[in-house]
Amino acid sequence: MRLSALFLLFVLLCATVTAQLPAADLVVTNANIQTIDQKRPKAQSIAVLDGRIIAIGSDADTKPMIGPKTKVIDAKGRLIIPGFNDAHVHFMETGAQLSSVDLRSAKSPEEFVQRIKEFAAKLPKGRWITGGQWDHENWTPNNLPTAALIDSVTPDNPVFVNRLDGHMALANSLAMKLAGVGRDVKDVAGGEIVRNAAGNPTGIFKDAASGYIEKAIPAWSFEQELEIAQAATDHAASLGVTSVQDMSAGTSAGAYQELLRRGTLKTRVYGCSPLNDFKRWANTGVRHAFGDPMLRVGCLKGYADGSLGSTTAWFFEPYLDAPNSSGLAMADVTTTMRQTIQDADKAGLQVRIHAIGDRANATILDHYQAVEKANGRSDRRFTIEHAQHLRLEDIKRFGELKVVASMQPLHVIDDGRWAWKRLDEKRLKGTYAFRSLLDSGAVLAFGTDSPVASLDPISGIYAAVTRRTLDDKNPNGWIPEQKISVLEAVRAYTLGSAYAEFQENLKGSLEPGKLADFVMISDDIFTIDPVKIRDAKVMLTVVNGKIVFERR
After folding, report:
1. In sequence order, which residues have a C-beta less than 8 Å from that of residue 31 and are 6 or more positions away?
2. What's the gap between Cα 309 and its chain centre?
3. Mean pLDDT (10-residue bins), the chain, 552 residues
4. In the list 90, 221, 427, 444, which could disulfide-bond 423, CB 3.0-4.6 Å?
5. Which domains does the chain have, with CATH numbers?
6. Element (H, E) at 283
């Protein structure tokens, strides 16, 4: 009798608990969930309420949370992972490029000119042509373009189109005229104006020298900013990118805020400002990761050097194909930058420095180490953006100093087509050293550098796992010893990126209490042939518990 009473009490308690379970807003069932949570790596179902995950487990675990108003999605066995977090993107430029001339895939100077001609023909007189993202390494021979090449097809439109790495750009003669740039213009520290034999600018401006032309380009109106930001966030949603760390947010926060107010911002944004802007933020009392989960500020972006493609990345030794140059250091790297980093860090702001060449990376690691010694230990999360070419002795310093390596795997399979022409075998051993960095204990945070490369993170995972170059000349991978697993690559695109922005307790893995940001993918990228990963598609994107993209 006593046992029967206890059993009845147990049944009543279970019924009471079940009755008290909240009805979820959204439940996904019959899924193949890779949580990126080491405590529970896999699951079948996920339940969401008020933008947060309230349960993750089996279909039986979430079934009691399905109420009359709950939206239920049958995943039909498809893969679900946390939403992708792009740790290094130029978000507004990504949106702008969607409506700009596309020069990335132009295979010759003739095709380059033709695309500009066709684009210019659609524009009113006087409208600037920017963006572009051209790559002269696609051409044979790979000579840099000149103003003379495009002047005849752009007589009424000033042009300033970027190379895809963003570290040099081509101006036509009209743009140089409007900017007041002629033979007598002086070179600038941290930049280079390419000149012909007579000393006249050819139209190519590298790194800091681009400022000569940029000052003449009209600023976007606020309405243009809204259109560009909306295009960027819509595009991100279609690729499963639920968070971005915008390295050139600048004054764009107003546009993001307005989209948030309208309810059309589909991407969480962490906006970085220029490093030298630190006093303005420090004076307002802003610290790193300030804001709400949708829109935050508090990171500062600086530059140590340029890029490999523009031969402006800063190395200890000269380029093989430019023996008179070892690249360009930005003007403040060896003068005021260390003090600026120290002051910004002391103010509680996060510092993130672009460094590509081995000397640039070594110098920034030295700066970070000195600043930590001066300011004392704290959870500062210094980050090196790109960290592309490292001396072997510097790789271990990332782990020792707890410096985040914010890297873009799509650059691997692009640069691998031609980097060997610039760097010797010894230097290439430390190129995009994903495996060695992870083994050092460093945190990898993956991104794309869009619009320098495609915003598509699935292509980035393919690149990190296979390292097969875009020309298919390295079927076993370029520097294959630096390959990483699919799980490691996904972790770098999710939890690693969340760590880089102080948000690993809110997102980056699928756990109860965390933000409900996740994506459904057409194929199981963890089990298919790695070469086929690039063909997988995002089928569904959920941000804050709401569907923001669904493939039809």
Report:
1. 43, 44, 45, 46, 75, 77, 78, 79, 80, 520
2. 18
3. 42 44 94 97 98 98 97 98 98 92 92 96 92 91 95 96 90 96 89 93 94 93 94 98 94 91 98 94 92 96 94 97 95 96 97 98 98 97 98 97 98 95 96 98 97 96 98 95 98 98 98 98 98 98 98 92
4. 427
5. 2-77 (2.30.40.10), 101-214 (3.10.310.70)
6. helix 278-284
